[in-house]
Amino acid sequence: MLEPPPRSMTSRLATWLSGNSRNSQMQPVNAAGGAFDIVPLPLFHWSLRFAALAKQHSPTWLADVVAQIEPHAGSILTAALTIVLIAFLTSTIIKRRKESARPVSVAVPHAVQAGWNGMVLPYPTVSSKAHPRLITCYDPSTAQHISDIQADDASAIFEKVRRAQAAQRAWGDSEFARRRRVLRTIKQWLANDMEIVVKVACRDTGKTAVDALLGEILTTFSKLDWLIGNTEAVLKTEVRPSNLLLAHKRCKVFHRPLGVVAACVSWNYPVHNLISPAIAALAAGNSVVVKVSEQVAWSSRYILTALQACLVACGESPDLVQVVVCYPGDAEALTANPAIKHMTFIGSETVAKLVAQSAAKAMIPTCMELGGADPMIILENVDLKYFAPTWMRGTFGAAGQNCIGAERFIVSSKIVDKFIALMAPRIEALKPGSFLADTPFSDSKDVKQAGDHVEHVDIGPLITGARIEALEAIIADAVKAGARVIIGGKRYAHPKHAHGHYFQPTLIVDIKPDMTIAQEELFAPIFRVMSFDSLDDAIALANGTRYGLGSSVFGSNKKQCMYVASKLDAGMCNINDFACGYLNQGLPFGGVKASGYGRFAGPEGLRALTSPKATTEDIFFSAIRTAIPPPLDYPLTNPTNAWSFAQGLGNFVGGSLSQKARGIFALIRGSL
Length: 672
Hints:
Elements: H1 9-17, H2 42-57, H3 60-69, H4 73-99, E1 134-139, E2 144-150, H5 154-171, H6 176-192, H7 194-205, H8 209-235, E3 238-240, E4 249-257, E5 260-264, H9 272-283, E6 287-291, H10 297-313, E7 321-324, H11 332-335, E8 340-346, H12 349-361, E9 366-369, E10 375-378, H13 384-396, E11 408-412, H14 416-428, H15 435-438, H16 445-450, H17 468-480, E12 484-487, E13 506-509, H18 516-519, E14 526-532, H19 535-542, E15 552-554, H20 558-567, E16 574-575, E17 596-597, H21 602-607, E18 610-618, H22 639-654, H23 657-671
Parallel strand pairs: 5-6, 5-8, 6-7, 8-9, 10-11, 10-15, 11-14, 13-14, 15-16
Antiparallel strand pairs: 1-2, 3-4, 4-18, 9-17, 12-13
Helix pairs in contact: 1-4, 2-3, 6-8, 6-10, 7-8, 7-10, 8-9, 13-14, 22-23
């Protein structure tokens, strides 16, 4: 007989778990000296009952084995559970270490270092007639020159696509653990260098640091977290339901990488708009070529350097991510390149049509995320003071240069005067300026010494001065048609930054649906107000443009809010909030009508970057296989029997009970 082990705490715990203790309960003493009852786990209790039955009804030799093991069953089971737990924890630790982020160091760009002071350009623009192959990079808030970058020509673009294609061959077969390691490394770099990245975005677009963090950093973190946590589950092989005809088959869908995918992205979020399609492509097993806007060529080069450094730190090829910056004349080397297997476009409706036509030449599927004139519907029972900050940020964040910005406020006529009176002083108090040059965030000694006397900066400039005259003309036309400008409406001449691209924070009211200002996406710090008398009137106003990207409904009556939301022609809607859905990257992002088609983000966007392959196999691989019935085998020696058999098969599969019965007889008859 085996000697029982000492009565350690482990063995005593095992005895209790087995339900075999003296009182079938254990009375552990708590810290206060009292006792509390614990009910034994029945699993181990019944395991011993099973052992007793086995001993009673089994052969003698097996009964002897059971008799020796029975006294130690609890300890054995506890030891087994301990081994399983240790194995699980060890596996988890090894897996986490395998996927853990690698350290990355990226040099700080010169234009965000302390003491940097670029030359002010008197006529700032990205292109130069004297140097047609150069892109001039400058800060639109101060017009300070940052650098000049060589624009890619067609041959350079072809070479970048070729390199991405070569790198993808090995990456396409990578395990999800490898992909997660890269994503975790990118996330760790972004967390470590967050302030630097924010300053880079501010320098290249002029936006404030707050806008950069909210719109660039938080959204990118959300995307990374979702991809790290969900990619493997979303792209795992699926087993699809079968039917009667294929009852002996297992039907699967494999989501395979496409190869090289591309993205043509806008300038308004230079960090997120580059990283987002890149990490989605990498998570799906693709390589990626991102064409960025000339307006943000400088910041894009820095982001590319960081992404490639993260890849190298993980032992992967830096060629998996490529960035193209070129003038429109060379873009077709990417948009019509047959090596590109999918293209995401973020930009204007006009350019989207050109890209779609170009992509069609190579049969490249596209996802189009275009502009919107997003409606904010304000019901009469809304809490005006509570939501006022939300409406301000919805319109003036990023100086209004946001595809899902709050473009049109459609307000109940019963409260529209109160609404205007509440918003007007807030809008009037807004201060345009350069967040890097004029605030304590700056490294300027003069700014830091000013302390509490430093001027605040709420919004930055427009990305280019080319649109200012057009905005002024739209507002002037609206005023002629009966609209009223309460605040702003024109170019803002900044006292310190005379060459910056500033537009006055604007409040314009009494807008009618037939005005141009009610129909167009302005992409500017302009707060537009319309009014409605009924819910259906509000819905008609909201749906009365060619756009359908985002939307919001604000009110205290849930039933009314849900009714309005259900009737809006938009790809997204937020109840009592503004654009918050984008912070959940598990949701699909995209619009309808002239706001585009297709979706990125969420399972829908991730799967669009893969090729679904439908596969069938025999469940009992060699035992039951599909066989062509003799009546249907070529040549059809007896067409009558062939038709009788086929007709019987149709009745059996799709008919009623009586038809199924007749179908069975027809199958039998056709087989004779």
